[in-house]
Amino acid sequence: MKMWSGRFETAVEASFDRWQRSFPYDRRLLAYEIASSKAHAEALAQAGVLSGQELSAVIGALGRILSEGVPADTDATIEDVHHFVERGVVEQAGDVGMKLHTGRSRNELIATDLRLYTRDSIDHVHVRTSALIEALVEKAEAAGMAAMPAYTHAQRAEPVLAAHWLLAYAEMFLRDIDRLQSCRERLNECPLGSGAVAGTVVPVDRQAVARKLGFDGPTANSMDATSDRDFAIEFVQHASLLAGHLSRLAEDLILFSSNEYGFVHLPDAYCTGSSAMPQKKNPDALELLRAHAGRVLGNAVALATTVKALPLAYNKDLQETQMPLFDTVGRTLAVLDVATGCLRSLDIDVPRMRIAATRGGMNAFAAAAFLARRGVPFRKAHELIGRAVQLSLSKKCELEELSTEDLGRCEIDVPLDQFRSALSLDAVLALHDVEGGTAPARVAAAIANVRERLESMQEPVGGRS
After folding, report:
1. Nearest 10 degrees: CA dihedral of 116, 241, 124, 221?
2. C-beta separation of 150 from 157 below 8 A
3. How far is the C-alpha of 386 from the C-alpha of 406, rounded, in Å?
């Protein structure tokens, strides 16, 4: 029997009934549905709707349903997870189970279940992202003084420490955690007691119900509580940023592991071969990280589009917001695990990186800065060093290999030994001695700072379950 069949004279058309069921996917919310139902049952007992004996029967039935878990979806008469639980309580506790739905609606139940699910999912993502950041920091520490080219416009720009490059991603992922924690704070309000649209008709203690479920308090407006999914949209949008950062990291590693760069060597465990070309080692794990970012972004668009024009309050359209949320959670946790595992087994080719960081005029900016420190206006210094770069290209040598006569041809009048000293790799790296720069001492401080911030972030309660 449907939970709403009394008003209807004929049964729902079979194909429509199968199509509109949500139990095949909302069954994953069983633990949250049980928790919400227990909290509601206790509130009903406090309000005098259930006796102590009836409450015990209902709570016992709910506990057994949870321990038995969700069976295979073979019963097409079960409409959703709410129907499954309520029917199970009636089967196990008898007619008293019919009292459980007193003063409540599926509209508030699904809103509550999804908030609980999203809250736990944020905690799980927090833990996984923290592990990824830890892997980045460990790899940065291991890289030590290894230098590499930094790129702008996909062209070699200036040398940086490899640790500096790795920490750039650590900063992105720290912001991702911060955004998700902010989302968690906003969603942590309890819709139970909102009824279908106007609020429950039973004088339940909403504050007590909220505390029971770990919420900060009850929602302030019943229409808003039952009809909005901004918490899910916000989570998925933040997850799409996280996925985008993972995609960028994957792209760097794909490029840097190619023969053309050769800066890193990917672990075999996260690569595959070619069915046709025996020599190939394909970065499939990283390529899939890029692709999954598109799927998560698509979920964010789907969610926002679904709710953009819904009138207040609840509409069946909201059922279609569940799968994008579920899909995003599953994908995000999976890609974080893959990225972390791949990164931990990554080998950095320090000699290859160093060669790339000391070739092709990578110290040209340092040369211009050297002239500027000697009183030459920077715009003029830029022009003079540009001439020197052109000359070094024609001579097929590096800037520091130019002679005194060569520098004179470019109107650069400086002691050759000082010029060459200023263009050494160590000097070029040390030149960027500002907070956030790539000077070795600054990078060492940045590693310590990332560790401190990571440790200061409160460990999520449910993240390791």
Report:
1. -10
2. yes
3. 13
Helix, strand, coil shares of the chain as percentages rounded to 5? 65, 5, 30
pLDDT of residue 462: 56
| Domains of the chain, earliest start first | 5-102 (1.10.275.10), 116-355 (1.20.200.10), 364-423 (1.10.40.30)
Give me the residue label for tokens 């790795």: 166
Find out whether 325 and 332 touch, Cβ atoms under 8 Å.
no
Task: Kindly list the averaged pLDDT for each block of 10 residues, start to end, along the chain of length 465.
Answer: 61 75 94 98 98 98 95 83 96 96 97 98 98 98 97 97 98 98 98 97 97 98 97 98 98 97 97 93 96 97 96 96 98 98 97 97 97 97 97 97 97 97 98 98 98 85 49
pLDDT value at position 8?
A: 61
What is residue 73's predicted lDDT score, i.e. its pLDDT? 72
The pLDDT assigned to 3 comes to: 60
Q: What is the 3-state secondary structure (H, E, C) of the chain?
A: CCCCHHHCCCCCCHHHHHHHCCHHHHHHHHHHHHHHHHHHHHHHHHCCCCCHHHHHHHHHHHHHHHHHCCCCCCCCCCCCHHHHHHHHHHHHHHHHHHHCCCCCCHHHHHHHHHHHHHHHHHHHHHHHHHHHHHHHHHHHHHHCCCEEEEEECCEEEEEEEHHHHHHHHHHHHHHHHHHHHHHHHHHCEECCCCCCCCCCCCCCCHHHHHHHCCCCEECCCHHHHHHCCHHHHHHHHHHHHHHHHHHHHHHHHHHHCCCCCCCEECCHHHCECCCCCCCCCECHHHHHHHHHHHHHHHHHHHHHHHHCCCCCCCCHHHHHHHHHHHHHHHHHHHHHHHHHHHHHCCEECHHHHHHHHCCCCCCHHHHHHHHHHCCCCHHHHHHHHHHHHHHHHHHCCCHHHCCHHHHHHCCCCCCHHHHHHHCCHHHHHHHCCCCCCCCHHHHHHHHHHHHHHHHHCCCCCCCCC
Report pLDDT for 235.
98
Reduced to 3 states (helix: H, G, I; strand: E, B; else coil), residue 42 is helix
Please give the positions annotated as active site. Answer: 153, 274
